[in-house]
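hiii so um. not sure if this is the right channel but i have a protein structure encoded as tokens and i wanna go backwards to a sequence. like what aa goes where. can anyone help
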């Protein structure tokens, strides 16, 4: 279990992490969700003792990282990709890691088998694809058979097969009773991967909730209605106590009304009883991504299908469907190292951030000093 209390990190005038309090429980995958720059990597580095909090603290199983006697056996992490020496093979790299952490050599073959790298374990890591490098990173994280695992943006840059593999693998680790904490800026990915979500924006906690509740609350439905007598229609609907919002005309669509907490049937019948002509009556599901951007105060544009999905809040017109390296595994103390405007509860595809930021994390020194600051500038 991971517990953060009032966790804060300031870099000069920037408050990267602002009084975060949350807990990550074993036995399930917990997603750490926030737009680029929200403070996810900084939080993970503090969990791993690579950055000192400016205030507050974070504990793993009740102890600070620096106080863990054998950190590699308690927590494993995948932070940054491609940090393995290119001329080393996966096996020799793992043997070196194991030896430097007093882990029996036979564990190397076990973890190679677990991540599916046995067949290529003798090949130089420099020739590995990103997906293979990810697996190697995970193998390093698993060397000490830790009960707590951290993954920072593990699917960045992976192909669909690699994404599926990582997702299933995290489920398996959680099923084994481990604490699995995975960061992402992709709500659509987290919706498929995590049972629990910790959502942050600009360093602050926005929500800690089950993924199911988050999706339900973020994908409220609304009814869009328009006709030649909008003002009268507005009066009829509000007269029935309905929450009605005006959607001004845009280049693409004429002015309309957005009605929440109702159905197309009810709106149509109310209009019919007073003889109002309607030109449009549609139900829209809020886009999860738009809800996410709103909640996180995101200043990041999310794009999918070639258009920008950032825009009005769910249920607000103007938006379709709605209203509108690895990593290098970071083996403590041994080494470290995007959907568009979907219309359903779970957006159909990944969201690609307009402003891309690569996976964050610290390089993987073979034996990081607990508590040592890992500066971004020092990243490989
Ligand atoms: N070493 C550092 N020095 C100065 N500012 C930093 C440092 N590390 C992070 N920041 C700033 O802190 C904020 C949070 O960054 P962080 O990398 O933790 O966010 P993130 O949610 O992981 O984003 P991303 O997905 O883009 O990596 C950003 O404004 C970032 O520029």
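sure thing!! here u go:
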């Amino acid at each position: 279990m991971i517990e953060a209390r009032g966790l804060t990190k300031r870099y000069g005038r920037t408050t990267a992490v602002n009084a975060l309090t949350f807990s990550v429980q074993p036995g399930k995958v917990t997603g750490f969700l926030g737009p680029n720059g929200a403070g996810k990597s900084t939080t993970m580095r503090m969990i791993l003792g690579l950055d000192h909090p400016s205030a507050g603290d974070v504990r793993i199983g009740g102890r600070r990282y620096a106080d863990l006697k054998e950190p590699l056996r308690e927590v494993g992490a995948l932070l940054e990709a491609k940090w393995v020496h290119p001329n080393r093979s996966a096996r020799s790299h793992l043997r070196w890691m194991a030896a430097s952490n007093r882990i029996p050599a036979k564990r190397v073959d076990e973890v190679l088998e677990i991540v599916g790298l046995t067949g290529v374990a003798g090949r130089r890591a420099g020739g590995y694809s990103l997906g293979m490098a990810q697996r190697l990173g995970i193998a390093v994280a698993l060397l000490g058979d830790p009960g707590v695992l951290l993954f920072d943006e593990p699917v960045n840059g992976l192909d669909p097969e690699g994404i599926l593999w990582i997702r299933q693998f995290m489920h398996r680790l959680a099923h084994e009773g481990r604490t699995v904490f995975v960061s992402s800026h992709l709500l659509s990915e987290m919706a498929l991967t995590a049972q629990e979500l910790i959502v942050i924006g600009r360093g602050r906690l926005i929500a800690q909730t089950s993924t199911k509740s988050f999706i339900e609350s973020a994908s409220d439905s609304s009814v869009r209605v328009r006709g030649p007598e909008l003002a009268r229609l507005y009066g009829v609907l509000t007269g029935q106590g309905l929450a009605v919002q005006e959607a001004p005309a845009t280049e693409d669509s004429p002015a309309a009304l957005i009605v929440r907490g109702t159905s197309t049937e009810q709106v149509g019948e109310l209009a019919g009883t007073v003889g109002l002509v309607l030109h449009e009556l549609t139900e829209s599901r809020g886009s999860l991504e738009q809800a996410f951007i709103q909640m996180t105060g995101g200043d990041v544009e999310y794009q999918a299908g070639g258009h920008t999905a950032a825009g009005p809040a769910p249920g607000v017109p103007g938006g379709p469907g709605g209203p509108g390296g690895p990593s290098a595994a970071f083996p403590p103390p041994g080494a470290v190292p995007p959907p568009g405007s979907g219309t359903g509860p779970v957006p159909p595809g990944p969201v690609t951030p307009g402003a891309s930021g690569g996976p964050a994390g610290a390089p993987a020194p073979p034996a990081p000093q607990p508590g040592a600051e890992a500066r971004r500038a020092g990243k490989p």
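oh and The longest strand covers residues 14-24.
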